[in-house]
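Illustration 12: TRAP transporter small permease protein.
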Amino acid sequence: MDIAIRAVRGLSLVCGIVAAALTATAVVVVCQMVFVRFVLNQNTIWQTDFVTFSLVGATFVGAPYVLMTRGHVAVDVLPLALGETGRYWLAIVAAVLSLGFAATATVLTAMFWMEAWENRWVSESMWRVRLWIPYAAMPIGLGMLTLQYVADLVELVTGRVRPFGLEAPLEGGI
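Figure caption equivalent — predicted structure in C-alpha cell form:
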C-alpha cells in the first residue's frame, strides 16, 4: 500500500509541475501577444485560446497537487471544535463525499472528452484547435484528484495522518 500511495503522490507532484509550466507558458504567451498587438500592430490568432486553455488546464491538472499539499483554503472551525473522535469521523465523511464528487466528475468529463474526440470538435476561433487536446485536462486532472482522495482516505483510515492535518488533539473540543 505504501508503494501505491507514494506513486499517487509522485503523480500528483508531476501534475503540480505541469500546472506550473502551463501557467508560466501562459504568462509568456500573454507577453508575446501584447508585443505583437501593440508594438508590431499585428493580429493575434492563437494566443487568446492558448492562454485560456492553458490556465483552465492548469486548474484541473494542478488540483491533485493542491490537495496533496493541503494548499487549498481550509475553514477548520468545526474540526477544531470537535473532539478527536468527531474530528476523525468528520474527516472520513468529508473525504468520502469529496471522493464521490471527484469520481463522478471524472467519469462525466471523460465522456465529454470522448465526445469531442469522436466528433472531431474544433474551436470556433481562427486557430481551430482540436478540442480534445485542451479538454483532456479535465479527466486527467479529476482522475488524479480522485486517486489523491483515495490515497488520503487510506492514510486517514490507517492512522498515517491525523484528521484535517491537525497535529495535536484538542481534548473535549473548544
